[in-house]
Amino acid sequence: MIEILQADITTLAVDAIVNAANEALRGGGGVDGAIHRAAGPELLAECRRHPGCPTGTAVLTRGYRLPARFVIHTVGPIWRGGASGEAELLARAYESVFEVARAEGTIRSLAFPAISTGVYGYPKAAAGEIALRAMRAHADEFDRIVACLFDAESAQAYRDTLGRLSSP
Ligand code: ADP
């Protein structure tokens, strides 16, 4: 089941929340900063044990003080106008999260932020369509997939896109 929520992703009690991280996995602004603040310093300590996370790949850590048991860190592309493989890299970031979630074995619910649509500048409508197509492709493998948007306008845009993708 795909659910669209307007919420702060750090408050969601799902098995795993997804972080829109950077390749160094050293925390940052936006949703990354919010997740590290809410999880506590143990999260950064675990991230430091990873060599990094190239764009389009994903890394699993524990969730520490978050209600979520796990964080799946992925890195979306920086928007450079659209002719630099951004769409494929963004789709790959979502696919990598699903692969990591499946491999963990006990993750039944997960929540995604709108990867790449903040500081990385990916146009929101185009990114939302890629996100929702990926979620639809994996909806049967999990009990609950949440698309977590920070603002009401983005949540409504996701609802419109999901409706369009779902209609025959
Ligand atoms: P990126 O670097 O991948 O663009 P950002 O963190 O800058 O990542 O932004 C990604 C999206 O996350 C943006 O649409 C932003 O509005 C949203 N966002 C920021 N903080 C939160 C939060 N606490 N919960 C959910 N979404 C958030």
Kindly list the characteristics that best describe this protein.
168 residues; alpha/beta; Leucine Aminopeptidase, subunit E, domain 1; 6-stranded mixed sheet; 5 helices; 18% strand; binds adenosine-5'-diphosphate
The strand count comes to 6
What is the fold named in CATH at topology level? Leucine Aminopeptidase, subunit E, domain 1
CATH superfamily label: Leucine Aminopeptidase, subunit E, domain 1
Order of helices and strands: EEHHEEHEHEH
Chemical compounds bound to the protein: adenosine-5'-diphosphate
Tell me the strand order in the biggest sheet: 1-6-5-2-4-3
Quick one: overall form?
globular
The total number of structural domains is 1
Task: Output the number of helix runs.
Answer: 5
Q: Taking all residues together, what is the mean pLDDT?
A: 97
- The structural class is alpha/beta
Q: State the separation between the terminal residues, measured CA to CA.
A: 18 Å
The fraction of residues in strands falls at 15-25%
Proper CATH architecture: 3-Layer(aba) Sandwich
Summarize the structure in short:
The protein is 40% helix and 18% strand. With 168 residues, the chain is α/β, with parallel strands linked by helices. It is globular, with a radius of gyration of 15 Å.
Explained architecture:
The mean pLDDT is 97. Helix 3 packs parallel to helix 4 and helix 4 (124-138) crosses helix 5. The chain is built from 5 helices and 6 strands. With 168 residues, the chain is an alpha/beta fold. The protein binds adenosine-5'-diphosphate. Adenosine-5'-diphosphate binds next to helix 1.
